[in-house]
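Folding Query — how this chain folds
Tokens — whole-number codes for backbone shape
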Amino acid sequence: MDSDAFRARTRQHFLIWGAIAALAVCARRVFNVPPLIMLPGDMSIFRLVGIIAGVMAISHAFSLATLWRIKHQKKPITEAVMVSRLYGVVAFVAAGLVLASGFGKLEAFGTFFSLFGGMLLGFSLQAPITGLAGWVLVSLKRPFRPGDRVQFPNLGLTGDIKDIGIMYTVLDQVGGTIGSEEAVGRNILMPNAMLFAQVAINYTARQEAGFMLDEVIVRITFDSNWEKAEEILLSAATDFTKDIIAITGMKPYIRSDMYDYGVNMRLRYQTPAKDRAEMSYKLSKRIFEDIQRTPTVDLAIPFVYSARAGARDLNERPPLPPTAQNGGDPEAKLIQQIPLDKIKATHKTAETDVLDQLAQSIAAQGLLQPIVLIRTPGEHTYEIAAGHLRFDACKRLGWKTIPAVVRGVVAEGRLSKEAAYP
């Protein structure tokens, strides 16, 4: 809501209720108008109207004061709206009590509440009262406000706060139907009673500058030009986040770590919390295009080494040798089916995600290249000379045997001269 519109509406209501209260007081005390109607509670109609109007005018005066304070503190206008609603509820309750007093029913109301209030609160009104208490708590402490992006980890739910009502908080769900952090337009009603037991993570605690740290990971080969790769990443991030840098003063930076097939370049930058997916897309596209135009930087790919090497191999390498079943290549006849339990696995197992990728490829296409084994002297066992990952992947698939080429024997801790590595 616009602050000027909210201020104008609140001021208008304050003037209307204040005028009604002033007329009621003036009619009785200044103009000496006789009380036309006396209520059972020994209260004239002028006095009743004047008190109720005064209560409503005071609530709007408090709203104007709160608006001024929140604006002075440079907080979002939605906080003033939340507190003003709380004032309105209190004023409504106070007006109801005044009305009951005017009709002489205040004592009866107190008796009824003392007799049945505890039972009603303990049973039928337990959830509503808890929800009301949750609304009061959120309105006073304001851990989140309309417009904020909030995550509730215990519920597995992320959403943009659309409204905070007395009983329900309305969220526009983020994700859920798609695999990224974007609002999907599906409203979720969350009972305020649940707020007492939930952890809330506010992505946009500072609503006027709702930025968060994000990263794009680019994997480059070991022989890539590191400085050029950093230049590509930082240039793209600086171009797309220059407005954010001007506001926050936080520039993009890079952190890196090694992995089996290259270097993980982690580009970290400030991004609008609600536009995180779009910003990541723009950066990834720009970086991809710049790397394609830079021959000294190459993308690392598991099992192939690099994007350019993979493309070059597909175009230049000779066709695979025929298998032993279709005859042809004499070396294909050396391929044997070796039981996996006869192979000593002395190597360190690779990361789970890497093995999963390779296992899926082998399950779909078969083992395109046999592993290479070395015989152990005096034993019917083998050691792996080449193909450790392929061995682990086939083992994970539950294979009993694996295609292998046996070359040489292990002698005195070293491979014999017969051993060869592909």
Notes: The first strand starts at residue 38 and ends at 39. The mean pLDDT is 80. The longest helix spans residues 3-30.
